[in-house]
Each structure stands twice: as C-alpha cells, then as structure tokens.
TrEMBL record:
The DUF4349 domain, residue ranges: 76-291
Organism annotation: Pontibacillus litoralis JSM 072002
Record flagged with keyword Iron: no
This protein's UniProt keywords: Membrane, Signal, Transmembrane, Transmembrane helix
Protein name (database record): DUF4349 domain-containing protein
Compositional bias segments (type: Polar residues): 42-58
Amino acid sequence: MKKLIFISLVLLLVACNNAPTDTRNNTLSDDVEEINLDEKSQQANIKQKNGEASTSSKVADADSSPIVHTSQEDKMIIYNGHISIETKEYQAFQKELKQHIDKQKGYVVHRSIHKDEDNRTNATITIRIPQETFHSFIEQLSTTKITITNQEITGEDVTEQYVDFQARLQAKQKTEERLLTFMDEATKTEDLLQIASDLERIQEEIEVIQGKMNYLQDQSDYSTITLNITETGIVSSTKDKENLQTWAKTKQAFQSSISNLQAFSSLLVVTFVGYSPIILLFLGIVIAVTWGIVQQRKRRNDKKKNS
C-alpha cells in the first residue's frame, strides 16, 4: 500500500513539471497565428483615431468661422511648377537666377544647355525649392527682366496617403516588438524558425513603408520647378553678323599668310644647308664653263684686232 502511494506521488510531481511547458508552447503558437489579425486591428484603430482628430479639427474651425480653412501645417502637399521663359541675354539671367536660388536656400538638380544655328542659348533647369518659399520664388522670378510665355503650377495632396503609411508603420512596429518577445520565450525549434521568418518579413515591410514615407516627406518639403529658357538674341542684326564674319575671315587669312611665310623660309634653309655640297659643285661647274667661254671670246676678239 505504501509503495502505491509513493509511486502516485512521483507521477503527480512529473505531471506538474511538464504541464506549464506544454501549456506555454501551445499558447505561444496560438499567439503567433493571431499576430496578423491583431496587426490589422491596430491599423484600423490608428486610422480611426486619426480620422476623429481630423474631424474634430474641422468642426472647431467651422465653429470659429463660417469659412473652413485647413492649416497648411496639417497638410502634406507636393508642389510642381513648369515655367517657360524668354530672355534677351542668357548669361545675365543665369547669374540673377543663381542669386534667387541661393537666397531661397534651394539647389539645382538638373541643367541642360544647347545652342541653335543662330548661336542662341536654349536651356532646361530643374530646381528644388523649400515649400514655404515656393510661391515667393515664382513671384520674384516674375520681377526679373524676362518674359514668361507659359506657367503651370500643380499641387498634389498626399496627407491621407502619408497618414495611411503612418498607421501601417505603427502597427508593423508593434508586431515586431511582440515577435521579439515571443522569440525570447520560445523553447521549440519549430517555433523559433516560424517567428524568425515572420520577423524578417515584418522588418522588410517596415523598411519599405519608411522609404515611401521619406519620399513623400522629401517631395513635400522641397517643391520642384522646371524652367525652359529661350534666349531671344545675341547678334542684334544681320549686318553686324556679316561684319563679325568679315573680321574673322581677315584674321584667319593673315594668320594663314604668316604660317605660309614661315614654312617657305624653313624650306629654303633646309634646301641650302642640306643640299649645299651638290649646290657648291654645280656652282663650280657653272663658273668654270662661264670662265672658259669668256676667255675663248676674248682670244677671238684679240685675233681680229691683230689681223
């Protein structure tokens, strides 16, 4: 009888030690499976809170004024401008434009320049300007000595899209925290592998969402302006252009004649110095033949006088 009681106590202790571990592992598996549902619920709650806050703000504005004005700080708007410009002198306008850009703390991201057959400059310049100075920059641009032939300003409200990314990011980050907690508590290899796989997927999704949010933030903080610049003229008339061409041709002819004279002088020096032995021999023969002919004529003249 005592042996039976002892064996029963031992079995009872073993069962008590194993029960918490099995229960914890089962609970851990159930929690991992429910993560996606909790994540969706968190996104919905965050969006609902954002929507309620936005609605409350609009109601407060409506009570204070009959016209509803949304604060610019609460909005995330991407502005883009396309402006076509004509200027008489491109270089002067470019210097003035650089001063405006530096003053507004902007920067140039693209510049393309080419000249037409009349030597006039055509350029395309893309500029990034802080959003708070976007409209003032365009107004200052209008005061310069240029002619604006076309102007197109567009604005895209991405507030809702950014808020949606924000809600998704917060939900993903909470899920990441839970998965890290589960990983510390897991004891089974299969649970660890499953949690590691889910954690890697969640972290990748967090990086993608953060990248999209950073892009929207950058495009909103700095507006983009594209300027298409056309120079209307450098040479004032056809006559002036012809005079410039005549002077250029005269200068080219003078330089060509100097070059030819130098080449001819060089050729003479090379010829006389290089072929001097042959030239001296030829001159000696010519002198000897000439001297012989002169002496022969002299003898004939003397004979005629004596006879």
